[in-house]
Automatic annotation (TrEMBL):
Keywords: ATP-binding, Coenzyme A biosynthesis, Cytoplasm, Magnesium, Nucleotide-binding, Nucleotidyltransferase, Transferase. This is Phosphopantetheine adenylyltransferase. It is found in: Cytoplasm. It comes from Dictyobacter aurantiacus. The lineage of its organism: Bacteria, Bacillati, Chloroflexota, Ktedonobacteria, Ktedonobacterales. PANTHER family: PHOSPHOPANTETHEINE ADENYLYLTRANSFERASE (PTHR21342:SF1).
Length: 172
């Protein structure tokens, strides 16, 4: 077996995941099939208005990863420049999901910058399944906050966490 064939293939799937959706989970499953190891990298300080803390987002992912039996997936927190994190864990690839042309434009630009900064690290984009085409974390948070049914678009533990969050913030 050549050195290339015996190399451990590790990919990083980064995001804020606030909260993780079935679309995110689908991408994680697909990445876990292609790579020996997949790290779900939960970004600590995205420039977004977050509902869940980084520790809550990590805990939700860990619960779902265990429930799904994804034995080659681990969940970690990261801060700073993604490419530096990927290098620090020995990753060869960054996994991203694409739902729309807007996603493609943003990922294309980020992928080119990452390629400039670290040409040894590949960006691998997965096109979403049709069932998740319209699903976004922010849209699901809004629907859940207003009492809409999001059960078929989120893992059960995430639905429970959303219900708990919104029951704490609802006016009496």
């Amino acid at each position: 077996m050549s050195q290339q064939e015996s190399r451990h293939r590790l990919a990083v799937y980064p995001g804020s995941f606030d909260p993780l959706t079935n679309g995110h989970l689908d991408i994680a499953h697909r990445g876990a099939r292609l790579f020996d190891e997949l790290i779900i990298a939960v970004y600590s300080f995205p420039a977004k208005n977050l509902l869940f803390s980084v520790d809550e987002r990590i805990a939700l992912w860990q619960t779902v990863v265990a429930e799904e039996g994804l034995t080659n997936v681990r969940v970690e927190k990261f801060t700073g420049l993604l490419i530096e994190y990927v290098r620090s864990v020995g990753g060869q690839a960054i996994i991203r999901g694409l739902r729309s042309p807007n996603d493609f434009d943003a990922e294309f630009q980020q992928g080119l910058m990452n390629r400039k900064l670290a040409p040894e690290i590949e960006t691998v984009c997965f096109i979403t399944n049709l069932e998740q085409l319209f699903v976004s974390s922010s849209l699901l948070k809004e629907v859940a906050k207003l009492g809409g049914d999001v059960k078929d678009m989120l893992p059960a533990s995430v639905v429970q966490a959303l219900q708990h969050k919104f029951s704490q913030t609802s006016p009496a």
